[in-house]
Amino acid sequence: MVTLERLRADHEAALLEFERDNRAYFARSIPDRGDAFFAEFAARYRALLADQDTGSDHFHVVVDDRGDLIGRVNLMNVQDGVAELGYRIAERAVGRGVATAAVGEVCRLAAAAYGLDALTARTTLDNLASAAVLTRNGFAVVGDISINGRPGLRHHRSLAAR
Q1: Strand (E) positions, the chain?
Q2: Are the CB atoms for 99 and 71 separated by under 8 Å?
Q3: Residues 120-160: tens digit of each pLDDT
Q4: Do 74 and 96 meet the contact criterion of CB atoms below 8 Å apart?
Q5: Treating both helix axes as pointing N-terminal to C-terminal, what angle do 41-54 and 12-21 enclose, rounded to 10 degrees?
Q6: Which DSSP symbol is given to 56?
Q7: Are the beta carbons of 19 and 77 closer than 8 angstroms?
Q8: CA 11/CA 16 separation, integer angstroms
Q9: What is the edge-to-edge ordering of all strands in the sheet holding 69-79?
């Protein structure tokens, strides 16, 4: 169905295309990244890879069975055994279980490969699909949050043996 690949330098062009192609779709449920994100993409990409090399972040792309990049799943701000989960799935791949599978796989990697103890995540209140993906993967709501001025929820998942 889908495969997670750790972010590499050769993913840059495909990831930029993915972000451009899905910008309007993403902006319907999460805050838009703005024009500067695209104008400065190459420099930001190099910074992501450098952060990944330090172990402070773990970035992944989601690839379908044809080899097309259809999403990204990231573990960011690793500190004291905890990381924040973030993910985006292409509009054309929605409704097929891709997000649920990709988040499940990154949860396994977080514990087994990266030695993490827990993950956190955030969703806006109107992003019901994202909240459902988190729930299906064992996350629990732990509080309210504001995301760029929009009401949202904080989620948490322990990675202890399940």
Answers
A1: 2-6, 58-64, 69-79, 82-89, 118-124, 140-147, 150-158
A2: yes
A3: 999 989 889 999 999 999 999 999 999 888 899 999 999 98
A4: no
A5: 120
A6: S
A7: no
A8: 9
A9: 2-6, 58-64, 69-79, 82-89, 118-124, 150-158, 140-147
pTM of the model: 0.91
Give the whole-angstrom CA distance, residue 57 versus residue 114: 10
> What is the distance between the alpha carbons of residues 139 and 79, in angstroms, rounded to a whole number?
19
The CA-to-CA distance between both ends of the chain, in Å, stands at: 23
d(CA 129, CA 29): 10
Collapse the DSSP code of 95 into the 3-class scheme (helix H, G, I; strand E, B; otherwise coil) and give the result: coil
Residue-wise pLDDT tens digits, 19-73: 999 999 888 877 778 788 888 999 999 999 999 999 999 999 999 999 999 999 9
3-state secondary structure of 46: helix
Tokens of 54: 């330090």
C-alpha 94/C-alpha 77 separation (Å) is 27
Contact 73, 62 (CB under 8 A): yes
Type of residue at 64: D
Q: Which two tokens stand for residue 26?
A: 């993403």
Which pLDDT band holds residue 161 (cuts at 50, 70, 90)? Answer: low
